[in-house]
Amino acid sequence: MRTRSLGLTLFAGLSIVMAACSSGTASKAPSTAPSVAVPTVAPSVAPASVAPASVAPASVAPKSDLKIGVVTDIGTLDDKNYNEYTYKGVTAAAAAIGAATPPAVVPKDASEYAKDIQAYVDQKFNMIVTVGFNLASDTGKAAVKNKGIQFIGVDQGPICLKADGSPDFTFPCPLDSKTVAPNYISIDFQEDQAGYLAGIIAASVSKTGTIGAIGGTTLCGSCVRYIQGYVLGAQSVNKDIVVKTAYVTNDFSKAAFNDPVGGKKYGQSFILNTKADVLFQVAGKTGNGVLDAACEAKIYAVGVDVDQALSYPSAAKCIVTSAEKALQLATGTVIQQLAAGQKLAGDVLFNAKTKGISASPGHDLAALITPAIQAKVDAALAAMVAGTLVTCPATGCGVYSK
What we know:
Elements: H1 12-18, E1 27-28, E2 68-71, H2 82-97, E3 104-105, H3 113-122, E4 127-131, H4 136-145, E5 150-154, H5 177-180, E6 184-189, H6 191-205, E7 210-217, H7 221-237, E8 242-249, H8 254-257, H9 260-274, E9 278-282, H10 284-296, E10 300-305, H11 308-311, E11 319-325, H12 327-339, E12 346-350, E13 357-359, H13 371-386
Parallel strand pairs: 1-12, 2-3, 2-4, 4-5, 5-6, 6-12, 7-8, 7-9, 9-10, 10-11
Antiparallel strand pairs: 11-13
């Protein structure tokens, strides 16, 4: 789970009650995501390999006057996580449409979010990308005040706004957020599908028939969806498997997502009490502590959001897979759609059909994922694309139940 600190309170409670299995209120990205060209030069971060866009003749090379600016979350631009992969998607899309290489600002702390967004507004940028849920409130407010600028928030939905752009926790959402801020898009992902794939792998490599999952807080809808999918994916492999689940806290205190030391202690206690031999973390930096506990106990671990064998290499030795979101592809796709004149507003969903989710490779533990296990993952992914596989319970995705 993306580290969201107290800023996660903005929409998480709403996401629990709004998010259905298919995330039905979200705008749907096209079934085939457009290719994203790799820029020749990207400041400080080398772009990952992605499918090249169609090559236009040299005489008609694309050219765009679009000025794109990026405000990341706190941390670094090369974090092998949200900041890096979002920025790679932005720079790749800019190159594909012939726009200037976008600058990126990395805030020192949360107090700089609004200031950094405003700096791009003052400099007449016409597209501003903000990274992660912590920036949702400041992004929404800026969008309402600057209707002539396109704002793209990564993982900031479901969008429910008051008239001033601040978050509204009322359900159902009193105002039509697409009317309040038609220039504000949130790129979202179907976490239950990614969790389902991770569950298949976890159940397949378990030797004891007991696996586990730890979320940051019960109030985090995306955390719940990940774990719900994980349970169903594991049960698709072994109907008798025992899946132990727990949440670090029922609130948005530091313990939920920003306490790796506490996360390790929580993970150690969980492992001791459950005897799980595979453990899925959905708790941000707190979850990194959970990964540490799994490695120390010499059991397998499952990462979240990005390939955590890369983003948290100290735990690579025990990470068998990660439930992953295609941040680079999704961000690049949306920018190219907008540049091509497509009308997008509100929440734009990426899922298996749009190659928006996946299970990361095993890296150090790649040999554990046998051809037979990979075939199960591939079959599930194909069924998701076809729309024939249910990856959340009857109660609905994002709904917490003990």
